[in-house]
Structure formats: C-alpha cells, structure tokens
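Hey L., structure's done. Input below.
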Amino acid sequence: PLTDTALSTPKSCRTAYAFGDRMARVAFEKTPSGVTGWVSCDAEETHSTGQQRDGWQAILDRFRCHVEAAG
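Output:
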C-alpha cells in the first residue's frame, strides 16, 4: 500500500511516500525561471541505478509535458 506525507509552501511542495519496503521523495520548487522538480527513491535490486534514474527522468519529462500543455 502507498502511504504519503506532504508539505507545501507558496514556493515549494514536498511529498514522500512508501511503496512496499521502499520510500520515494518528490519535491517541486518555484524558481525565477520556472519550476524545478526532484525525485529521490530507495533503489531496487532488479534494475541498475542508471536504468532506474532514466525511468524516473522519463516520468518527470512526461509530467513536464503534461503541465506545459495544460497551460
């Protein structure tokens, strides 16, 4: 089951959630040039660190496209 906690301010939004025995942390921060986002999670053993990093980057890239299309 997923569990989460969140903290939001006018300039940032941070959340953390558990999935299985792993944790993920997500943060978005408003900057003068737009919004910067980060994802940090506990690694899993099936895929290499590089594959996992590329997968999370793809998720963030798709999210950016979604947000930009929504205006």
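The CA atoms of residues 40 and 53 lie 9 Å apart. The first strand starts at residue 3 and ends at 8.

-- N.
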